[in-house]
């Protein structure tokens, strides 16, 4: 249930929507045993996951969002699209990403731990899976100008990368505070040929960059496609981005079968800001209810402080960025500022899929503090020789918070590399 | 049920001047005085902005006034308190404009009842789309004699315009160009063919043109294609610490209604 932080506030009592049964025709030929017949956790015809989601868009965005809604499935399920998408994932992104059995970390925790190495993808995170998909889609829609928002800069870099790959104009909106905090990524985007526009409104972070990208789209409705970086925003974005990221769990199933003899792990852990890597890691396991799904939010300085980004722990239902989901807000419905040491997780909302998984209890959501996360970074670095991104280390930190049996198979989605966070690590650990 | 918006459009067919301002700006308690002065100086309809932290359909001017209004302590609760006795002194139609989330947290039904009690005639909630409105809220709005004003843009298809026309009560808010508010696109740049196309559709509802109306010339031009026009960013930019609200509003409306 939604935490009753505003007990007198009405929840969202909506009429029950359709069951959203949709036969997925996605069959890359690799994973015959996968059940593509998701029912309870797939988006319905109106773009809802239970009571969350939808397309709460101003009329100025209607034509673009409606076109996407009408065409995205037909495009991404076409043979030509799948062929090019799969080819680029393989030859350009470097997929499949390995599933690595972390033996010393397993020994430390007394349970089997596998790492899904999204950090080894080109550009250092899972973000490229989505931007590759969306750039191909944008081409199909005849768009010649790409816009994106970015927080830490990972999605901005992934977008600038695919725009360079395809020779398409790219504009990235980034909060002015993040521009100064994430200078190397800003320079990388510029080198890739993108224009980076600092956003000075609000608190000058990810939420404000998203507002500004939406304003750009309103002002440029003809030639522009907006590449949203997470499973947020109006329908069909949450579903579309989840589908592009679902390659993560598709590969996991195959790799688990090879390495453990079963495609089902005991549990999967992934960090959650907007929730795109978690959506990808959970996707093909949603209906396999024996697999425990755990999302880990950023507690920041603690969920009982004002400096947190743990939306599901402290948030309440509301509408932001064209989606009905769980939000961090005050009693007047004004959005409050999230905080986390990790710029990629400080978003005051969460994808509607995750709000639904939380509400139905299908997934469990924990929160890890900055301090716990930094310790988890050091532990992985020194046990396995892998320096994880701050975001991904939230999932690692959760290993201290759950009960694991020796025979359990735990999969951590290691969503990104720590290269971008070296300055923070060196400052903190004093090397 | 007769609504002041319908009365206005029945009585006046052209040159309707509608003005938007952000409640709580420039100061928290200016709301009532601004409304009274706008009416006194000949404005026909007022849109009272309920500030939101993330106004995605608004340009820099209204973003800034919203931010200041929120810092000043504005909220829907405070606004309703300020407007409690507004109908003792003001008789022109009043419309509340803002984003859905604050209304949601206040409670949609309670919000509509309160509007009815105070004498608010309509709402403009850009991020409450037509299908969600019809499915979830239409009845509550109707029960409270509250018109939810819908928008159309140059990209809106003819079929959808017809649908919006059918669902509309009061008037249709015709966004002049594809933009956020106050984006600096001038009415001169607007495609007359869009205006003419809509005019020739013979819609059931009257139209007001908004976005990009900033002076007498743009107002007069827009009025050729609709019953009137809406001014927002230009009005909220006209406040100046050195000039009293009464004088500043009088000057602004005079400039708007008088050719150079």
Structural account:
Chain A contains 16 helices and 14 strands. Chain A has 431 residues and is of the alpha/beta class. In chain A, the strands form 4 sheets. Chain A has a 6-stranded mixed beta sheet with strand order 3-4-14-9-10-13, sandwiched between helices. The N and C termini of chain A lie far apart (44 Å). Chain B is 44% helix and 15% strand. In chain B, helix 2 (31-40) packs parallel to helix 12. The A-B interface holds A 6, 9-10, 14-15, 46, 54-60, 62-64, 201-202, 207, 211, 214-215, 218-222, 316-322, 327, 329, 331-335 and B 52-60, 63, 67, 70, 75-77, 99-107, 126-132, 135-136, 150-153, 155-157, 160, 175, 178-180, 183.
Net shape of chain B: globular
Largest interface: A-B, 41 and 46 residues
Strand order of the main beta sheet of chain B, please?
A: 5-4-3-2-1-9-8-7-6
Strand tally of chain A is 14
| Helix percent band of chain B | 40-55%
Oligomer: heterodimer
Kindly summarize this structure in a few lines.
The complex is a heterodimer of chains A (431) and B (260). With 431 residues, chain A is of the alpha/beta class.
